[in-house]
Design goal:
Distance between the termini: 53 Å
Number of strands: 31
CATH superfamily of the largest domain: Topoisomerase I, domain 2
Number of helices: 25
Structural class: alpha+beta
CATH class of the largest domain: Mainly Alpha
Strand content: 15-25%
Strand order of the largest sheet: 2-3-4-1-7-8
CATH topology of the largest domain: Topoisomerase I, domain 2
Largest sheet: 6 strands, mixed
CATH architecture of the largest domain: Orthogonal Bundle
Shape: globular
Helix content: 25-40%
Length: about 850
DNA sequence: GCAAGGTC
């Protein structure tokens, strides 16, 4: 039997399909699907199926000095037992094994891991390695016709990285967490990739904090030719003889304005025209895809998750790639033709096919890992995808179109006019040839109109405006710019950069989007800068890359590299030992600062965001138990303490993070006082207890900011209906006959909306929620929805009734935590 | 309970 091992299940299926000419069938080996035809078997791994870790006796943090981890043994252990078992079972019967993992360093290591599993069971079957960079018939058949051997040096380079990352990350993470006495989930983590990334964010924040704005002025005038007006701006030559628009002195600005206002005409001094070619963009690699999706409003992780769904469904190629050059065996014309008949893209594809020749653009990076992201000939109908998925799919299709389209041509027109010794300029631009913009509408094609004037011509000055401005602090990194910067610095990989950002959010290091660092993040970066500079610098990756290259080239061994790295970490721990307490205190202060609102109105100690034993959040006093002052917080989402401070109480405002239901709660003391001041408004009989006890329904505002319709006999009667948190609620004269309650109207923003009878409203809402499509849940695409339906879950209402762990076991790609998030969302 | 790297 010939066994073929691939890196992922999808690749196994497609390779089996190609090599068997479509005759392969599936069989189960344990719980794993394997493809077979004749004497061949193809099994797909799931990336790494074994991982490195310390032996069991190092697992308890309290029993081991973090510094001991530096010299602790490192073991390989299966992380995906079912797949490991299946590989071993197949290996026993194999006469020959072919490793067909991805064509990159990590693929070589994953291949070696498979090789070692095979060798545990089978001493003598020959093991070959095939390499191909896209799963197309030609490449795959060619690779299998010319098998090679595993590159053990290259795999060892990857193993060295695993060991160095584990030792540094685990030892320093434990050191920081233990010194700050952080237990449980709230450990303080550092690592070769996450900490330099965090430093980028922290350093930008330092620049913003240190920024001192400066006033300046800009002077504009409208010039007109026969009533045809356009905007021009005053400029001058500064001391370096460069053109400048900003006027730094207010008196100078006023003088120039006065002069200009006294003039009614300006004479055209020069007119220059030039045309500029605007080349179409390069094919998508992961980073550029994330950036483009980011400009459509998708967060990096969300964009990748949608792309993975589209890939699994077969609509686009593999979304994790560094490559920006299409492979030779992609025939763009052929692919375009498959779009020519579609309703969504037919006319654009047809117009592209009219070109004399089709020559796709090329980016700077040509790699062997995977082709650039492009659509496959397998096209979905619009109805097959959710709205978000369609947007991302269309982006990928149109990017492919753009890469085979013509350049655009812009015409620039610069006019300089002079009056009373002052010069005014206008820069016009016009899109003369739309080129690729016609099929790729994601870039701006805004034009700026400046009429055709000629030198010596007189223009009238219509309107003079002096604008006072101030210099702006540097902008925070957005998610996609962070990912681009990580790529430029060489930290992380195409597959992990967006995960690193999510990790920083989860660890409480960054908040909001664009991300801002917490006090804790600043303290961690400061501690690392002072004591373990290497872990916070992007150079650690650069140095490690150089060492890995040396291993791959046979110039160094894994042992040499990991020993050097251990020595460096030993030296860091020698210094850290003396400062343990100091570091711990600083981290603890920062942790507290992130949760501090301001002075307690009763005792003056700090008010802090705390969590009750049941898990709900509230505001409590640091003087507890002497001071028992508390304030409630809303019961949805996770609280974040903002920098904005309430003027009345000197307390920082609170924001509740709850996905798309995120909102700013404000000062919790103001909210509580507002609720105390707001009278309950009675609207009608309580359906539960009016007949028996005379209870009535009232619109109530709770101290945590929630608003509801509840019974006046609360807590004896707990009947309640939810109401929106925001907006003024008007009680109208129209009555619901069924419930004997007035119709309500909510005034929030411009358009008031009719909520109607609160009971009818709630019943409708509950029914809708109950039967809502699975796709309305966060992160559920058609693939996941299909799998959920297979497991007997058809609606959002059904999700509420399942056991999260059971469902996670049944449905591939869904974790129990995800299910719990859906359930919380549905409440 | 630690990292980063695969993949779902």
């Amino acid at each position: 039997m010939e066994l073929i091992v691939t890196e992922k299940h999808n690749a196994a299926r497609r390779i089996a399909d190609i090599l068997s000419d479509g005759s392969a069938t599936t069989e189960r080996v344990g719980s794993v699907d394997v493809y077979r035809w004749g004497t061949h078997r193809v099994i797909g791994l799931s990336g790494h199926v074994v991982g490195v870790d310390f032996p069991e006796e190092y697992a308890e943090w309290r029993d081991v000095e973090p510094a001991e981890l530096v010299h602790a043994p490192v073991q390989k252990r299966p992380t995906q037992d079912d797949i490991v078992r299946a590989v071993k079972r197949l290996a026993r019967k194999a006469d020959e094994v072919v490793i067909a993992t991805d064509y990159d360093r990590e693929g070589e290591l994953i291949g070696k891991e498979a090789y070692e599993l095979v060798r545990e069971e089978n001493d003598d079957a020959p093991v070959h390695r095939v390499r191909f960079s896209s799963i197309t018939e030609n490449e795959v058949k060619d690779a299998f016709a010319n098998p090679d051997d595993l590159d053990f040096d290259l795999a060892a380079a990857g193993e060295a990285r695993q060991i160095v990352d584990l030792i540094w990350g685990a030892a320093l993470t434990r050191f920081l967490s233990l010194s700050a006495q952080q237990r449980g989930e709230d450990f303080i983590s550092v690592g070769r990739v996450q900490t330099p990334t965090l430093r980028l964010i922290v350093e930008k924040e330092r620049e913003i904090d240190a920024f001192d704005p400066e006033d300046y002025w800009e002077l504009f005038a409208d010039l007109a030719k026969n009533g045809d007006a356009f905007e021009a701006q005053y400029f001058y030559r500064d001391e370096d003889d460069t053109e400048a628009e900003r006027i730094w002195d207010e008196a100078d600005a006023k003088t120039a304005t006065d002069i200009l206002e006294d003039e009614s005409q300006a004479v055209v001094e020069s007119v220059s025209r030039r045309t500029r070619t605007d080349d179409p963009p390069a094919p998508f690699n992961t980073t550029q895809f994330i950036r483009a999706a980011g400009s459509l409003g998708f967060a990096a992780g969300r964009a990748m998750s949608i792309a993975e769904d589209l890939y699994t469904a077969g609509y686009i190629t593999y979304p994790r790639t560094d490559n920006t050059v299409y492979p030779d065996d992609l025939d763009p014309e052929e692919l375009l033709e498959t779009f020519a008949e579609t309703s969504a893209f037919g006319s654009d594809a047809s117009s592209l096919l009219e070109a004399d020749s089709i020559e796709p653009t090329r980016g700077d990076t040509e790699t062997t890992d995977h082709p650039p992201i492009h659509p496959t000939p397998d096209q979905p109908d619009r109805g097959d995808l959710t709205e978000d998925e369609w947007q991302v799919y269309e982006l990928v299709v149109r990017r492919f179109f753009a890469t085979v389209a013509e350049p655009a041509v812009w015409e620039h027109l610069r006019v300089v006019a002079e009056t009373a010794g002052l010069r005014l300029k206008a820069n016009g631009k016009r899109l003369r040839e739309p080129g690729y913009h016609q099929v790729y509408p994601y870039f701006s094609t805004d034009e700026n109109y400046v009429p055709d004037v000629s030198e010596g011509e007189t223009l009238s000055i219509e309107d003079v405006r002096l604008e006072d401005k101030e210099t702006q602090p540097p902008r925070r990194y957005g998610q996609s710019r962070l990912i681009e910067t990580m790529e430029d610095l060489g930290i992380g990989t195409k597959s992990t950069r967006h995960n690193t950002l999510e990790k920083l959010y989860d660890r409480g290091y960054i908040e909001e989007d664009p991300p801002r660092p917490t006090r804790l993040a600043r303290a961690v970066v400061e501690a690392a800068e002072e004591f373990a500079d290497l872990i916070v610098s992007e150079e650690m990756t650069g140095e490690l890359e150089a060492e890995m290259t040396a291993i791959a080239n046979g110039e160094k061994t894994l042992e040499e590299v990991t020993e050097d790295s251990r020595d460096a970490l030993d030296r860091i721990f020698a210094e850290l030992a003396e400062s343990r307490e100091e570091i711990g205190e600083h981290l603890q202060e920062s942790l507290k600062a992130d949760k501090t609102l301001g002075p307690c109105p009763e005792c003056g100690e700090d008010l802090l965001v705390r969590q009750s034993r049941q898990g709900s959040y509230f505001v409590g006093c640091d003087g507890y138990p002497d001071c028992r002052f508390t304030l409630p917080l809303p019961n949805t989402g996770e609280p974040v303490v903002l920098d904005e401070t309430c003027e009345e109480h000197g307390l920082r405002e609170v924001k509740m993070l709850a996905g798309r239901n995120t909102f700013v709660h404000g000062c919790p003391l103001c909210k509580a006082e507002e609720a105390d001041d707001e009278e309950d408004r009675i609207i009608g009989p309580c359906p539960e207890c009016h007949d028996e006890h005379g209870g009535e329904l009232a619109i109530k505002r709770l101290r945590n900011g929630n608003r509801l319709v509840g019974c006046t006999r609360y807590p004896d009667c707990e009947y309640s209906l939810p109401l929106p948190r925001r907006g003024e609620i008007e009680i109208t004269d129209e009555y619901c006959e069924e419930h004997d309650l007035p119709e309500l109207v909510v005034h929030d923003g411009d358009e008031p909306w009719e909520l109607g009878c609160p009971i009818c409203n709630y019943e409708e809402y509950a029914a809708e929620r109950e039967s809502a499509d699975l796709e309305s849940l966060d992160g559920v695409g058609p693939t996941t929805a299909e799998r959920l339906r297979d497991a007997g879950v058809d609606t959002v209402g059904d999700v509420a009734d399942v056991d999260p762990d059971d469902l996670a076991d049944q449905v591939k790609g869904v974790s129990a935590d995800t299910v719990r998030e859906w359930q919380a969302d549905a409440d």
